[in-house]
């Protein structure tokens, strides 16, 4: 859990999300490229460099990297391993997505990560670790629609002093594939970024936990 705790402590302005797999089967690299480019997200290809503005991500239309070859292992090791308790694992596919919402001078981000592991035990651990992390939020809901899921919503998640921020998160598992979404947005409006990416990727929207 140390990796998750360190992430949570650092998420003062940005938010993480991991997207889910399809209802009855794994999402493939091509599935993600098709779904995300259809909502005008930019596929960065084989580069793990996502645009930044100083210390903040700056991906207003969404940017993502996805791979199902040796690069998938590199993406997991370099970008995603912290979501699995810093556990070394072998993976077959990895997706990392960021979309920025501007709120005054702040960048509030929705992140999407999906990992297909070679070993189901690693997938089970990642699901459990994230579920445990978000289970303390005010509103939670679990279920199974082709895959199991646990979603959470937290109103007035004041990670920025003096500002009202809401938080949405969810973890989803189908066999060896695990996805996560984690999104911050201002309390005064519905989060368009999270809802859009959930619809595109076939997720149960964390807002349904309210």
Major sheet characteristics: 8 strands, mixed
Structural class: alpha+beta
Main sheet strand line-up? 1-4-5-6-10-9-8-7
SSE pattern, N- to C-terminal:
HHEEEEHEEHEEEEH
Q: Radius of gyration over alpha carbons?
A: 15 Å
**Strand proportion:** 25-35%
What is the helix content?
Answer: 25-40%
Compute the separation of the termini in Å: 26 Å
Residue-averaged pLDDT, rounded? 79
Number of helices: 5
Residue windows where pLDDT falls under 50 for at least 5 positions: 1-24
Number of strands: 10
Assign an overall shape: globular
Explain what you see:
- The two termini are about 25 Å apart.
- The chain is built from 5 helices and 10 strands.
- It is α+β, with helices and mostly antiparallel strands.
- The strands form 2 sheets. An 8-stranded mixed β-sheet has the order 1-4-5-6-10-9-8-7, sandwiched between helices. It has a two-stranded antiparallel sheet with strand order 2-3.
SSE layout:
Elements: H1 2-10, H2 29-37, E1 42-45, E2 52-53, E3 56-57, E4 63-67, H3 70-80, E5 91-103, E6 106-117, H4 120-134, E7 139-144, E8 148-154, E9 165-174, E10 177-186, H5 192-201
Parallel strand pairs: 1-4
Antiparallel strand pairs: 2-3, 4-5, 5-6, 6-10, 7-8, 8-9, 9-10
Summarize the structure.
The protein is α+β, with helices and mostly antiparallel strands and 210 residues long. Helix content is 26%, strand content 34%.
Structure keywords:
single chain; 5 helices; disordered N terminus; two-stranded antiparallel ribbon; 34% strand; 210 residues; alpha+beta
